[in-house]
Amino acid sequence: KTASANFKDELAGTYYPLAGMEESIRQQLVDDHFLFVSGDRNLTVAGMERDWPEGRGIFHNKEKTFLVWVNEEDQLRIISMEKGGDVLGVFKRLAGGIQAVGDSVKAESGKDFCLDEKYGYVHSCPTNLGTGMRASVHIDLPGWTAHGVDKLKARCEELALQPRGTRGESGGQTGHTYDISNKHRLGYSEVQLVQTMIDGVNTLYKEDLEWQKKQFDFPTIQSTHSLVAKHVTKERWDKLCRHTTKTAGFTLAKAIACAV
Fold first, then answer.
1. Which pLDDT score, from 0 to 100, does residue 169 have?
2. C-beta of residue 122 within 8 angstroms of C-beta of residue 73
């Protein structure tokens, strides 16, 4: 709390300890999707949720574009984010924020971040060894969703990306909005990883537009004597082909797949 009080300019904000948190503040952090909670089985088994919620908290600046999670999974998780496509601006804020956190902690405790010259930063999760950085965007990919989520995952693998739902790593997938991030952390610089994410997302977006075009073309119905052929006319197709159900992202194309 003392260290965060030293943040200046756009990084200045407030630290909220989890222990003794007022209900109004807790609810606001939940509404902002900032609050982390206990109950992760893997963290519990590893002993990483002991003494919860003591020694844990959340910091965010006034604009809510810079956050620090304290003792969630790692001792510190430093986050820069904003709506829109200004990746460079988000990255610059992150770099400045990491420097500010490091300087403030050093002034308070006399200690630097634990950094190995070969393996990078030390993390609770082995997959984060190295830079520990995950650069991600939320993007709608209705074309890829219609083409197949498994096929999207395979394409992301080729592009060194990792797709997940917008509810987090274990929150599952709903609709056609995805959190797309760099897959690797180790063996690459931060700049390389951000560029990998940018290039990959641009590629997925262009491909998604192509899949959307194919998805909305009137299909050739092979079973010409079926009810599908009788009722799915071009007029009805043009009217309904772009409709997607809210719960599962189901489309007319999926509904008649067995007849095409």
1. 58
2. no
pLDDT reported for residue 2: 81
> What are the backbone dihedrals phi and psi of residue 14, each rounded to the nearest 5 degrees, phi first?
-135, 140
Q: What is the pLDDT of residue 17?
A: 93
Say how far apart CA 128 and CA 259 lie, in whole Å: 46
Per-residue pLDDT tens digits for 65-105: 999 999 988 889 999 999 998 999 999 999 999 999 999 88
Residue 234 burial (CB < 10 Å; 0-12/13-18/19+)?
Answer: exposed
Spans of the chain below 50 pLDDT: none
**CA 194 to CA 88: how far, in whole Å?**
9
Nearest one of 44, 40, 69, 67 to 55, comparing CA atoms: 69
The model's pTM is 0.76
Number of Cβ within a 10 Å radius of residue 144: 26
User: What is the model's pLDDT at position 242?
Assistant: 74
